[in-house]
TrEMBL record:
Transmembrane segments: 53-74
Name of a matching Pfam family: DUF4731
PANTHER family per the UniProt record, alphabetical: SMALL INTEGRAL MEMBRANE PROTEIN 1
Source organism, top-level taxon: Eukaryota
Key words of the record: Membrane, Transmembrane, Transmembrane helix
InterPro entries in alphabetical order: SMIM1 (IPR031744)
Protein name: Small integral membrane protein 1
Species of the source: Vicugna pacos (Alpaca)
Amino acid sequence: MQPQESSIQYSRWANGSRDAVSVAAGPGTEEASSWQRISWKLCSGKLGISMKVLSGVALFWAVFILGYVTGYYVHKCK
């Protein structure tokens, strides 16, 4: 695994009231930024809320079915 190169610049205004930090990442930033955009779209706003609700409902049903099947085989009459 290769270390990522990045440059961080810090500048302060003369009166000291504003600080600025800028980060420029090295190679591979296009992949990271596109992944961040997709992740941000899927995890925020109305789409993000609906994705979280749907994944919660799907997880509930998966656990419910797994528990039902497990309980069936554990308590099966011989």
